[in-house]
Backbone:
């Protein structure tokens, strides 16, 4: 277990270097976006709305729209990653609309059970009470809904 915990930041560093060599993309409305929160141990996800705005569930349990700078504010992240298919960003207007309709809503935030990943997956699936509490689960839903097969840095 300790070996896994120590190797995770190294894995994410290598993954970041590989991603940096890929072409960057501009997100589309309904794209899933994420950034690093804790040096590879946790991530933060949201839905791109268009116009440079991202809907996300903040740590106070409020669903809000922020710009990309506020999305990564207070994190060690230097980039935002975007859902893509091959070399192009993917999104869905219906996903963005679900996120927009929830702006200003409050949820009982819990770091493990009711977090930004559950909000993001809810925008993808339409089920806001889903059990998708980890980034890998959100990526799985993005693969199903958006046919995302890669993740690219935001241009």
Residues:
């Amino acid at each position: 277990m300790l070996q896994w915990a120590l190797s995770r930041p190294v894995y994410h560093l290598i993954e970041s270097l590989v991603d940096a060599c890929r072409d960057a993309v501009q997100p589309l409305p309904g794209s899933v976006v994420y950034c690093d929160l804790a040096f590879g141990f946790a991530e933060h996800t949201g839905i791109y709305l268009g116009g440079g705005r991202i809907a996300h569930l903040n740590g106070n349990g409020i669903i809000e729209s922020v710009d990309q700078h506020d999305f990564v504010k207070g994190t060690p992240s230097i980039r935002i990653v975007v859902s893509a298919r091959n070399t192009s960003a993917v999104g869905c207007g219906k996903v963005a609309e679900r996120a927009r309709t929830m702006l200003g809503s409050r949820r009982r935030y819990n770091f493990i059970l009711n977090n930004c990943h559950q909000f993001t997956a809810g925008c993808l699936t339409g089920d806001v009470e889903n059990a998708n509490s980890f980034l890998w689960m959100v990526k799985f839903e993005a693969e199903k809904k958006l046919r995302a097969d890669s993740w690219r840095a935001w241009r």
Q: What stands out?
A: The beta strands are 32-36, 43-50, 53-57, 63-67, 81-85, 88-89, 150-153. Residues 2-153 form a domain with the endopeptidase fold (from Nostoc punctiforme) fold (CATH 3.90.1720.10). The chain has one domain: 2-153.
